[in-house]
Design a protein that fits this description.
Elements lengths: L1 E4 L1 H4 L1 H5 L3 H8 L5 E5 H12 L5 H16 L3 E3 L7 H8 L4 E4 L3 H9 L3 E6 L3 E5 L1
Parallel strand pairs: 1-2, 1-4, 2-3, 4-5
Antiparallel strand pairs: 5-6
């Protein structure tokens, strides 16, 4: 199973003090691999370096990058100029789980048959069909 982590989802550990990797392990009961799009990494890098953003947001982006590297999250290379969300929707299928808190993205990938992982009560993750 392929689990694609969205940008906003990677910010959860710093923003809400939730270990998304332990939570994914807790709720997914089959073999899986974690992925991010190269555009997601680019977005995190831009956020980490943006002096117009709050320090805590920049720090959350820096931590997200470090954690993703440390956890061995694989990067999906893209060649399109489309937004990351649109590319995630294109990639999504019944063998894909998209981890995101974005309501619109969740709806779009579920319409393609993909499952989603989302945060509930700012404390834990759930797997949604």
């Amino acid at each position: 199973m392929k689990i694609i982590l969205d940008t906003n989802f990677l910010l959860v550990p710093m923003q809400f003090k939730v270990d998304i990797f332990l939570e994914i392990e807790r709720i997914v009961h089959e073999k899986y691999e974690l992925y991010v799009l190269d555009k997601t990494v680019d977005e995190l890098n831009r956020l980490a370096l943006n002096r117009n953003k709050k320090v805590k947001d920049r720090d959350a982006a820096k931590l997200a990058i470090k954690i993703a590297v440390a956890k061995g999250v694989k990067t999906i290379k893209t060649t399109s100029d489309k937004y990351a969300d649109d590319l995630i929707v294109e990639i999504a299928d019944k063998n894909t789980v998209v981890a995101t808190n974005d309501i619109d993205l969740r709806r779009r990938v579920r319409n393609k048959g993909a499952k989603t992982i989302l945060m509930r009560k700012k404390a834990f993750l759930v797997l949604s069909e």
